[in-house]
Write a structure and sequence with these properties.
340 residues, alpha+beta, Fructose-1,6-Bisphosphatase, Chain A, domain 1, D-Maltodextrin-Binding Protein, domain 2, 2 domains, eight-stranded mixed β-sheet, 9 helices, binds 2,5-anhydro-1,6-di-O-phosphono-D-glucitol, binds manganese (II) ion
């Protein structure tokens, strides 16, 4: 194990040197984003204190109005990224419309989509939450970016990543050259390479789904989960069930330990719950780069043609063998439905 200390900035620059003709703009995008993530980490790590630090008038010790963490995170990323001159437009889960670059700042060739704080319902319980991001090249010719720039299919992503604000804070990203994890060293405020070239196990022993939706599931999902729960030593079952309720945390565990995460379409969530552009696509890019698989049940996530910015998509993601097995149960259900 090399004892080289490799910061994320160094890793990005060295990665860029391997791409001839790289201009360094892309490194600047990731560098600026990393700074925003450190600012969010600082606020997230004292989330429980907000009501203590912030005075009765809902102001914090700096006299700023205390904002909900996802609003704070959203604004932090926008402000960190709006002036660098590398982006032509942004889009965020927290804003209905695309986020334009202010007129007085130059426009660049990249597009940033992001979920500033994922799993926000877990904040008050001090459960792991995260940030997810996805980067494209613009498709519009020049000037202000457009909605079309922000609704490209996932296979056109040039980078994707997420942060888990957990027992330690980790940033995991890919630029199409493998998946690499960096752990924040709070004493120096740097993300250091801790998980080089992450590969997801071909098969796992954990499934992750909100079983509270059982009553709404189709028969394919019901049969698949029941299959995983049956004892069969020959096929190494039953699996364990794990569900944190923060997509980033459930996905990170799936990436490292293997298995499957699923948020299916059901009678209560006809298109699933998770959003294609800033949840499913970035994680699908990462899982495929790590040797895994991601589908909406009928199509590879990265091939889903977006029709609107905040569209939802069913998500089945994880180890290749587990996702393929799940698809078999889903296809059997479709065959049965087609036969009636
Ligand atoms: P967000 O906090 O960004 O809105 O995302 C919440 C998502 C995702 O993090 C998680 O997997 C899912 O909501 C959990 O949904 P259920 O509570 O319906 O299981
Ligand atoms: Mn989310
Ligand atoms: Mn969110």
């Amino acid at each position: 194990m090399s004892n080289k200390v490799i910061t994320i900035e160094r890793h990005i620059i060295e990665g860029e040197r391997r791409h001839p003709g790289a201009t360094g703009n892309f490194s600047a995008v990731l560098r600026d984003l990393t700074l925003a993530i450190k600012v969010i980490w600082r606020e997230v790590s004292k989330a429980g204190l907000v009501n203590i630090l912030g005075s009765a008038g809902k102001e914090n010790i700096h006299g700023d109005a205390v904002k909900k963490l996802d609003v704070f995170s959203d604004e932090t990323i926008y402000r960190a990224m709006d002036h660098g001159g590398h982006l032509c437009v942004m889009a965020s889960e927290e804003n209905e419309d695309v986020l334009h670059i202010p007129d007085n700042y130059p426009k660049g060739k990249y597009v940033l989509l992001y979920d500033p704080l994922d799993g926000s319902s877990n904040i008050d319980a001090n459960v792991t939450i995260g940030t997810i991001f996805s980067i494209y090249r613009r498709v519009s010719s020049s000037g202000k970016g457009t909605v079309a720039d922000c609704t490209q299919p996932g296979y056109k992503q040039i980078a994707a990543g997420y942060v888990v604000y957990g027992p330690s804070t980790m940033l995991v990203y890919t630029t199409g050259d493998g998946v690499h994890g960096f752990t924040l060293d709070p004493s120096i405020g740097e993300f250091l390479l801790s998980h080089e070239n992450i590969r997801i196990p071909k098969r796992g022993k954990i499934y992750s789904v909100n079983e509270g939706n059982y009553a709404y599931w189709g028969t394919g999902v019901k049969k698949y989960i029941k299959h995983l729960q049956e004892e069969d030593k020959a096929t190494d079952r039953p699996y364990s069930g794990r569900y944190i309720g923060s997509l980033v945390a459930d996905f990170h565990r799936t990436l490292l330990y293997g298995g499957i995460f699923l948020y299916p379409d059901d009678s209560k969530h006809p298109d699933g719950k998770l959003r294609l552009m800033y949840e499913a696509n970035p994680l699908a890019f990462i899982v495929e780069q790590a040797g895994g698989r991601a589908t909406n049940g009928t199509r590879r996530i990265l091939d889903v043609a977006p029709v609107k910015l905040h569209q939802k998509v069913p998500l089945f993601i994880g180890s290749e063998e587990d996702v393929l097995m799940c698809e078999q149960f889903l296809h059997q259900e479709k065959e049965v439905l087609a036969a009636v």
